[in-house]
Write a structure and sequence with these properties.
The protein is of the alpha+beta class and 154 residues long. Helix content is 48%, strand content 16%. It has six helices and six strands. It has helices at residues 24-33, 36-41, 72-75, 85-104, 110-135, 143-150, and strands at 6-13, 46-54, 58-59, 64-65, 68-69, 76-77. Strands 1-2 form a two-stranded parallel sheet. The radius of gyration is 20 Å and the shape is elongated.
Length: 154
């Protein structure tokens, strides 16, 4: 909490789950109208800043170049519900470090192998995500779940 009862808020969602003509604060306030838990949490507080973030999944086409190697969310990101972000950040940092040391020791394919590993990881995640989300039946009418269950979002 900030002084004077102010709060900073962030709404993570998928494109299409909010109207693009609305500002972030308008979108958040609309969400508050339908969410008693958020209403209670933010009672007598006024958002001073709100930001919308795309919570979709993504993966780089190539994880490395001459002067960099991508790790964590810079390399691949998973939807928030999967709760894989912190683990993947640490695992990809470990694997990128190993690739770097292997490259320095003469393995010219080390970064190619790192890239391939993360690409396979993302494909596996996508398969698992589709299976898990297909099992969820509680919110079938909600835009977020329609998009996920249809496979429209990555």
């Amino acid at each position: 909490p900030l002084p004077d009862g102010k709060v900073v808020t962030a709404l993570y969602t998928l494109p299409g789950c909010y109207e693009r003509k609305n500002t972030a604060i308008e979108t958040l306030l609309h969400q508050l109208q339908n969410n008693p838990q958020l209403q209670q949490m933010l009672v007598h507080k006024k958002p001073v800043h709100a930001q919308l973030y795309n919570a979709g999944s993504s993966v780089l086409k190539q994880m490395y170049a001459e002067n960099y190697v991508a790790i964590g969310d810079a390399a691949l990101s998973f939807d928030l519900i999967s709760s894989h972000g912190m683990v993947m950040a640490m695992v990809s940092a470990r694997d990128a470090t190993a690739a770097y040391h292997q490259f320095r020791e003469g393995n010219v394919r080390a970064f190619i192998e790192y890239d391939s590993l993360l690409q396979r990881t993302f494909i596996q995640y996508e398969q698992n995500r589709r299976q898990v989300y297909a099992q969820e039946k509680r919110w079938l009418r909600e835009t977020y779940w329609k998009q996920w269950s249809s496979g429209a979002q990555s």
